[in-house]
Amino acid sequence: MGTVVNCPFCNSQRITLVEFIPVSSFKQLLKDKNIQSLNETINGITEIKYNSCDECGLRFFFPLITGDSSYYESISSDANYYAWSLSRADFKEASKHIAGNMAVLDIGCGCGEFQKFQNATNYTGIEFNNQAVKQAQERGYNVFNEDIAEHAKGNSEKYDVIVCFQVIEHLSSPKSFLIETIKCLKDDGLLIISTPNNNSYLTYLVNASSNLPPHHVLHWDEMSLRNITRALPLEVVSVAKEILTDENKDDYTRSLLTAFFQTIFKLRPRLVDFSVSFKIFNKLAKMLVPAFNKVVAGKDLLPAGHTITMVYRKKSQPVR
Ligand SMILES: [Zn+2]
């Protein structure tokens, strides 16, 4: 008998197995990152499954191996981690909804990068990476180390807008996180969430450790993000999808070509693949990227880009 797998958001047991990832491949991915503490966690595990919830559409890994604060301190010591060079379509989208007199909470704020993009002076950030908190405080930002459950205790219905950028893909208990978040929001207040859009070029990426556990354990798309409102007192105000940026275009073209070669040989494209055939196809695809990029120059041929930004409004009724 296999372990019963429940959806980490809606708790449904109507789950479809999308891909079985051998632990050996997973260890190979981790080794590249050289993260010792996680190797210990992985050692106790025999299988990792990539699943899709038939009820809400969320895709998730099981078991849900998430990084602890030491993991994030280790990967964020790379100076680019919070200053990632994507266009920050999510920051720009969120700032449209924020006026100067609003009280804003930024959950998982990192070094407080979003401060520069918005007008509100009443800004609070919470973050569990101590290094990032220190950096934000040195910049004079109102940022401290607290999780949302602690914060909700003293700050019920305090904020006009809560932003949460690139956080929910990291969580093992997204529903309780959102319940605590909504508690901090005034009635009719806005909750703005951004996350990697799984219905995008990301679907084609192989061995992309930044989009796999322990970094990303949940893969969201518009459907699963809309379905949040079935379980929580929220309504969707707007959905914004980033278009594929030039810096991600090469990755997309290479992955698409690799998948094309695999299909010809009746091999199924996978999230994690260390087979010899994949290596050969991927190398070949890499050589063809410059020529092929000219063909897919037309914007309408491109899939969605990295990020989806959802704006929800809190409905005035108690959290179920
Ligand atoms: Zn579900």
What would you note in describing this structure?
The chain has about 325 residues and is of the alpha/beta class. It has helices at about 25-35, 35-45, 70-75, 90-95, 130-140, 150-155, 175-185, 220-225, 230, 245-265, 275-295; strands at about 15-20, 45-55, 60, 105, 120-125, 145, 160-165, 185-195, 220, 235-245, 305-315. It has two domains: about 75-245 and about 305-315, 3-Layer(aba) Sandwich (Rossmann fold), CATH 3.40.50; about 245-300, no CATH class. The chain contains eleven helices and eleven strands. The strands form two sheets. A seven-stranded mixed sheet has the order 6-5-4-7-8-11-10. Helix 10 (about 245-265) packs across helix 11 (about 275-295). The longest helix has 20 residues, at about 275-295. The mean pLDDT is about 90. It binds zinc ion. Zinc ion binds near residues 7, 10, 53, 55 and 58.
In helices, the fraction of residues equals 25-40%
What structural class is derived from the secondary structure elements?
A: alpha/beta
Overall 3D form: globular
Compute the CA-based radius of gyration: 20 Å
Within the largest sheet, what's the order of strands? 6-5-4-7-8-11-10
| Second-tier CATH architecture of the largest domain | 3-Layer(aba) Sandwich
| Hetero ligands | zinc ion
- Number of domains in the coordinates? 2
User: What is the top-level CATH class of the largest domain?
Assistant: Alpha Beta
How much strand?
A: 15-25%
